[in-house]
Amino acid sequence: MTSPASSSEVKYLIESSEGNTFDVSGAALRQSNTFNAMFLNIGADGPIPFTDYNEATLKKVFEYCEHSVNEENYSGPKHQDDLSKWDLNFFNEMDQKMFIDVINASNFLDIERLTSYCCERIARMLRGKNTQEMIKVITLPTAEELEAKQKVEEKKAAAAKKVAEKAAETAEKTETLEELPVQQLVQTTRNKLTRKYLSFSNE
Amino acid sequence: MALKFTNFPYLVQKNILKNMELSEIFMTSLCSKKAKNCVILARIKVSKVWHEMRGNKLSIRIEQKGQRSRTIIKVSEVPEEQMRHAFRVRIGEDFDGLAKIRVRVSKRNENKQHYRIEVYHIGETLKNSLNDHFKALFQYRESCALLMDVSKISERMPNFGIVNEIFLVGKAIVELEDLERILSQWPNLDTLSIFPTIKGDFTDTSKILVAQNVFMKNIGAFGMNILKNFTGRNINLQRVDVVEAELREILIKWMNNEAYSKQRKTFILNY
């Protein structure tokens, strides 16, 4: 942690999943309840590891935090129609993968405002859609797909069970052979041989 | 990259659902078993539920505190020809059939919308499944209201749980026997409103007298009997065949505190 004199200018080093580090202002970072709970009072000696998320995602999240530093205190979800031009650009710039990563990161960092906006955005994607359309948007497996998946799993389980049973049977046979007394073992082998011989003679 | 709803953490799922309308939440729950579980886990509460059964329609309305009730789901029967683009829908544990789902947006308010599920036939399975599914989603255990057409009175009712308000509408005549049978299912009745004419033999042990607030529009000859035996709080009877002597007797008893101690308001119209 770099620690200049004024508390508003405090900068923290953040470490991403790639191992890269970058600066984030204390004011922006304080919007994260996770950070507040973990580091605010005790401070951090080195870079703060948020290694579950990549650099681009973290930078995007903290870009939002930096921007909303001067906004009034958060009071419940804001309607998407009330979003400023900057906010709209911020969301529209992201592709879907980045959007999902940002939601997950902001949920982990517990940044209420950003998580709420993202969730409302998803809710709006589903507005006015029926079940089939919803399934397409949020790619839920349909009942049929689930059924098919279950059948495949059942088949796999049955096959595995069969293999296990066969293995157990073979193990049992070997065990019984090993357990037999020597004389009996000789007798069994002899019987087998005779049977073979007989079968040969029949041919 | 897919936007997989069920892959989001629990708090995100809950947050998304809280940003949705109740009708949309209901629709999401019909997408898959996993989605249904997500809705249940989000613990979304609703205040008062209204079940409406009129003609070949079935609907569920929600009345939030201090607001007018809003329709969430409407199920209606449509002829087979109109089911061309129907798809398979599973509701609750038992119903698995073809349905068409459409969104209806209010003309007055764009934010108000409800879903219309169109099926070929509204059977008992669908009624029960819809009711069970709804109760499971919102973990609804409070008392609900029932608005039904008089023609539905002889049908078997789904298990609505506690019903404390009943509104009976329609133009057909109600047989008192059927009415008594249906009222015996819900002993904690608070409000009973009956618009159609009633036919049958009234007794002092009638279940109508259980309700605390009674409104009857075409009561006719029953009126005086009900008024005499009423032990609830408010009563509003219209088109009563008033017998003056009996009415005077009732009023004297009430004024002298000899009977009707709980009664607060009595309204009688003889036309």
UniProtKB/TrEMBL annotation, chain A:
UniProt entry tagged with the keyword Coiled coil: no
What does the record list as GO biological process?
ubiquitin-dependent protein catabolic process
Pfam families xrefs: Skp1, Skp1_POZ
- Provide the SKP1 component POZ domain boundaries: 14-69
SKP1 component dimerisation domain spans which residues?
113-159
Q: Which UniProt keywords apply?
A: Ubl conjugation pathway
Has keyword Cell inner membrane? no
Q: Which family does it belong to?
A: Belongs to the SKP1 family.
- Recorded protein name is Skp1-related protein
Q: Which organism is it from?
A: Caenorhabditis remanei (Caenorhabditis vulgaris)
From TrEMBL, chain B:
Pfam families from the entry? F-box
This protein's source sits in the domain of life called Eukaryota
**Ranges where the F-box domain occurs:** 2-53
Put simply, this protein is called F-box domain-containing protein
The protein's organism comes out as: Caenorhabditis remanei (Caenorhabditis vulgaris)
